[in-house]
Amino acid sequence: MAKDAKDLLERVREELKSDGGSNRLVPLIASGEASLEALKALAAEEHRIVQSDWRAFLTLAAQSPLPAQREFFATVASGEGLALAKLADFATACGLTPEDVAAYRPLPGCQAYPSYVARLALDGNPQDALLAILANFAEWGGYCATIAAALREHYGFDDAGCAFFDFFAEPAPDLDALSLRALTDVLATGWTPTGAMPAARLLHSYELMFWNTLADL
Q1: What distance in Å separates the CA atoms of residue 52 and residue 60, rounded to the nearest whole number?
Q2: Taking Cα atoms as reference points, which of 17, 25, 26 lies closest to residue 136?
Q3: Which of 108, 179, 204, 217 is the most exposed, fewest CB within 10 Å of its CB?
Q4: Which domains does the chain possess?
Q5: What is the pTM of this model?
């Protein structure tokens, strides 16, 4: 069954890639061409996203009837909490004060993603949410690794300023194993992924919208 879960996840991720679209911001950061204003917006938008996702993942954990599924959502929620403090250092490195972050006016194109994650939590279907979220986790770590390296090379950020991205770029084999165990247990209940595919596609589109909204700044 673990192989079934892995195969399903790989198939869904390939389907999402085939839908097209690309992240235009990360290559700009990687080359040092992204503006400081875009980085500031990234920090302020993520400040709101992390807090929203933290609450959504805790809600999904509470809804999850299966132990591994519940543990997965609780674990990623805990990660959001740890990341929030590191995000403050990134904002500081960008030249933002806490008051600046609080006063920032969030962009609709950036907040569609966390709003949809929150909707998945409110819909009360943690099985569909599990697959949709896992399918969209794949590229995040790679993006963060690229951004962390570029912030050091092109923007002169120190380790504290890059720690938010370093945190998510770090391989997490235990979390990967837990996610497959959770998906395996969900499949064992007879659940099928048909209903989760629209959610996975929307979440993928909203993530690209987030990055590309910032790329246009």
Answers
A1: 12
A2: 17
A3: 108
A4: 2-215 (1.20.910.10)
A5: 0.95
